[in-house]
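Record 1 of the preview.
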Amino acid sequence: MLVEVPEAQVSDLGKLFENSEFPAIDIDQALVYSLPLVNRFRRIIVREGVLLRSGNRWGEFAPFWDYGPHESKRWLWSAVNALTEPAPQIVRGSVPVNVTVPVVSSKRAAEIVEQSGGCRTAKVKVADRGTELADDVERIKAVRAALEKQFGQDYRIRVDANGVWSLAEAKAAIAALNEAAGGLEYVEQPCKSAEDLLELRATTSVPIAVDELIRRSPDPLSDLPDGCADVMIVKIQPLGGVSTVIDLAKKAKQRGLEVVVSSAVDSAVGIGLGVRAAAAMAQLPHACGLATSQLLKSDVSRQPWQVRDGQLEVREVEVNTDLICAPSNDDHRDLVNRWSQRMRDVAEVASR
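->
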């Protein structure tokens, strides 16, 4: 579903920037999308957000619903920056990506890997509510078998716990999952707090990556204690835009942290921004988490993102205008009104 925001409301949205910290911009068009997922992911089955057009450029504003106005401000900055900043200078024409495996059955996990378009790296979600460690172990084993079938020993497996484990749970889980994977590339956000990550990193040889710990921090690097992580996950929308992420990656390298450019389950527009950011970085030691279009049943672009040989090619994204409809029923109007209100709430915070 791709619903056009009425012209009067678009004009009102443009006025939101006049008395806030955001630069004044002319919004020519606003579209609200609602895209169903193939499998439940992050406890959602539909991904929603707003696309903003100024001239021939598109930005995206799509904070998850558990983000309040203050936390959503950087997401709106990302959309504004996409419309106003110069494009980064790229140094490569394509970027390596991982396949993302949600919390699904072992059989389905293997199918996802087999249908990934040649991804040699798999990111496997673990520690989901209502599941057991044994389920995660079996999913990892299935993913490993599928990768070995295609690539022999030339593959990587990483896991993401979204900060769910306690310190004791993390120690036990990482040991079991590392064995099942034949060696993990890294474990992403195993615990919520920096204190737990510091202790955990001192007791395991598996590299630790941080995501939520920096994504929801007002000052990601300054608030990250030395020694609590090896890898930093950077996402365009949550961190404020392409140039912000590129600058953050440079600073992270100076602190000895490797960087992985990833997606917040963006639409095709957001994926395009992530691909450009990754393509502008001098080094990409790890596959990027940007192949999340595979999680969606449909998307907003005329040409869907396709992974080939485990890579996404840098290209422009053309929004599929054939999908656009006017808000002709209650569901459409509710979708438009909810997202218009979210933008108003964020702009109000930014005007204080």
